[in-house]
Every structure is written in structure tokens, then in C-alpha cells.
Recover the amino acids of this structure.
């Protein structure tokens, strides 16, 4: 399976959503750096971002287990199915208590509106003081955990 930034970002957010132990200061710093990178990334940097996400997840065994579980749940979904449960940008702003924020990523070339939404959602969460607590305010993410487990052949 080819890595897909949208699925990996969403899986990472889902893992944070379910994560119980608080993140360490180093992990919070790494998430803030990743969020900053998402603010002005270009499609050429996609593999680097995927590597960064994997490194952050693998550094925390509990987070990594949740991340892998979320990746498994999202794997069978087509991209349109992936986006159906995402909250609107206005809803995210409301849930996170944001008055106005720049949307960071502006696609170069042919834009993919959905990628913008996931990148911006991830950026908004990861650059918060406590992303592990902020993501729990986005209750729409719980719907992804209710998806049936994909069969393994």
C-alpha cells in the first residue's frame, strides 16, 4: 500500500484522540514543529512529512499502537469516504475556540480541497498548547473509531 498523507494525518489525529497518558514535553515540541511544517508544506515534501509522523508515533509505544490501529481502520476507505466524517473548518474553529486563524497551506498546482482540510485540521491541532487535549474536543473523530475493523487476509 502506498503511503497517503491524508490517511496518515487522520490516523495520527485519531491516535491522539484516544491517547490517555499525557504527551511529554519533547513530544509536544515535535508536534508543534510538525504543525509549523504543515503550515507551508509543498507536495514534494509529502514523504518527509509521512516519515516525521511515523517517527513521532513510534517514539511513544501507546501512541504508536493507537496510530497503527487507526491506519488499519482507515486503510480500506476510499479518499471520499475518508473525508465524509470530517467536521467543517468552521466547526473545528468553534470546537477549538478559535476566532480566526490563517489557513496555512495553500496548494500549488491543481488543488485538492480535501487534503487542504486535513492538513489544516492537523496543523490547528498540533500547534495548540496541548494537542493531546485539544483533539479530544473534536468529537466527530469518534465516528472513525466506530468503523468496522478491516479484515486481514
Amino acid at each position: 500500500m502506498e503511503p497517503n498523507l491524508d490517511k496518515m494525518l487522520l490516523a495520527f489525529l485519531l491516535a491522539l484522540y484516544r491517547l490517555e497518558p499525557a504527551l511529554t514535553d519533547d513530544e509536544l515540541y515535535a508536534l508543534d514543529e510538525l504543525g509549523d511544517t504543515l503550515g507551508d508544506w509543498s507536495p514534494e515534501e509529502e514523504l518527509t512529512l509521512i516519515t516525521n509522523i511515523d517517527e513521532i508515533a513510534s517514539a511513544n509505544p501507546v501512541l504508536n499502537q493507537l496510530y497503527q490501529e487507526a491506519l488499519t481502520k482507515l486503510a480500506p476507505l476510499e479518499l471520499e469516504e475518508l473525508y465524509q466524517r470530517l467536521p467543517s473548518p468552521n466547526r473545528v474553529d468553534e470546537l477549538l475556540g478559535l476566532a480566526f486563524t490563517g489557513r496555512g497551506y495553500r496548494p500549488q498546482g491543481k488543488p485538492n480541497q480535501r487534503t487542504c482540510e486535513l492538513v489544516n485540521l492537523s496543523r490547528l491541532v498540533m500547534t495548540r498548547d496541548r494537542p493531546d487535549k485539544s483533539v479530544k474536543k473534536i468529537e466527530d473523530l469518534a465516528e472513525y473509531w466506530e468503523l468496522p475493523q478491516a479484515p486481514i487476509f
Residues 105-114 have pLDDT under 50 and may be disordered. Residues 6 and 109 are 18 Å apart (CA to CA). The longest helix spans residues 5-18. The radius of gyration is 14 Å.
